[in-house]
Amino acid sequence: MQKYNINKFIVTIIVLIGMSISFTSCLKETTNPPLYGYSTPNVIAFQDNGGPTGGGAGYGSTTSPFPLYQFAFDAATYVKNAASFSAIIIYGPNGTAPEDITVNVAFSQAALDSFNNVNSTNYVSPDPSIYSFPSSVVIKKGQSQAYVPIQLINSAKFNYSATYALPIAITSASYGAVSSNFASELNLFVIKNQYDGAYSLDIMTHGWAAYGISDNLPGSYPGGMDLVTAGAASVTLYNGTTGLGALQPAFTAGNAGATGFGATTPMFTFDPTTNKLISVVNTTAPDSRNRQLTLNTAVTDSRYDPATKTVYAAYLMTQNGRPTQYIYDTLVYTGSR
């Protein structure tokens, strides 16, 4: 497992678990029924595993905060059905199990619904073909924790445009009290392919000078550009700095200002073996202008260069009643997005 490394496909797993230990001082048994926080003896709960992005990022309910954690997996392991992580269940707060304790766990849509409702998010649970985990684990006598291995499975039902959240919950234990506010865990994950990331963008256009668009004048686009995974070897453009979002970027005449073309969202698709750019399409439904994007086949070296992490893309935009707009992009990787 590699953390925070997007060299190949990576499955970014955001694990929102239990509650950060830093919050336990305000979660002692002050309500009725008791919350069974970490200060409660003989409690069975998910453990805060101390990730670098932890610390109460969101709330599943007013009594069940979920801190935010992020893990990254190299996609080479994912496509081999080898990507996995473990949820940690503890017997606490500081003791060891007096006997073997069987802890039952299950998928919990209620935990995900709670989180979405409180945080106004729209995370969706993955198809069962995408993951697996056992229905129970055992905290051995004399031990303080057990691991729930969660396997991510390379599945044709994976939706690359979705942000999945896998919610699991402790349903029962053969000994001790199941925590009320640490009994659920949310695991967010997406797949990021090797082209995904933040990039600087140099762009040159030609053909629409009559319509106030920069012509044959290269320029560095403000804020750069994100390439966002849209498929196993596909990415879409996104720029949050200019406010243009996913629109096809450009400059006005003389590179006086950044602009973008409405109803035009480019998606690049590469050959994962050769890294050649093999397709450029508009993923936004056409309006009356009928703007279309296609690969410029006259340029034969549109590609991704893995050595320099640079994308070279030459493509065409057409519109009813206008000549062809030629677009030339050079995107240089600057980091993960």
Topology:
Elements: E1 10-17, E2 43-46, E3 58-61, E4 64-66, E5 68-74, H1 75-78, E6 84-92, E7 101-107, H2 109-119, E8 131-132, E9 136-139, E10 145-152, E11 164-173, E12 177-178, E13 184-192, E14 197-206, E15 219-220, E16 225-231, E17 234-238, E18 248-251, E19 258-261, E20 266-270, E21 277-282, E22 292-295, E23 303-305, E24 310-318, E25 325-335
Parallel strand pairs: 2-12
Antiparallel strand pairs: 1-5, 1-13, 2-6, 3-4, 6-10, 7-9, 7-11, 8-10, 11-13, 14-15, 14-16, 14-25, 16-17, 17-20, 18-19, 20-21, 22-24, 23-24, 24-25
Helix content: under 10%
β-sheet strand percentage: 35-45%
Q: Could you spell the SSE succession in H and E letters?
A: EEEEEHEEHEEEEEEEEEEEEEEEEEE
Largest beta-sheet details: 10 strands, antiparallel
CATH architecture of the largest domain: Sandwich
Rg, Cα atoms, Å: 24 Å
Number of domains: 2
Mean model confidence by pLDDT: 81
CATH fold node name of the largest domain: Immunoglobulin-like
The CATH class of the largest domain: Mainly Beta
Describe this structure in words.
With 337 residues, this protein is mainly β. The protein has 2 domains: 10-192, hypothetical protein (bacova_03559) (Immunoglobulin-like); 197-335, Lipocalin (Beta Barrel). The chain has helices spanning 75-78, 109-119, and strands at residues 10-17, 43-46, 58-61, 64-66, 68-74, 84-92, 101-107, 131-132, 136-139, 145-152, 164-173, 177-178, 184-192, 197-206, 219-220, 225-231, 234-238, 248-251, 258-261, 266-270, 277-282, 292-295, 303-305, 310-318, 325-335. The strands form 5 sheets. Strands 14, 15, 16, 17, 20, 21, 22, 23, 24 and 25 form a 10-stranded antiparallel β-sheet that branches. A hairpin with a 6-residue loop joins strand 18 (248-251) and strand 19. The longest helix has 11 residues, at 109-119. It is elongated. Residues 1-36, 49-65 and 67-72 have low confidence and may be disordered.
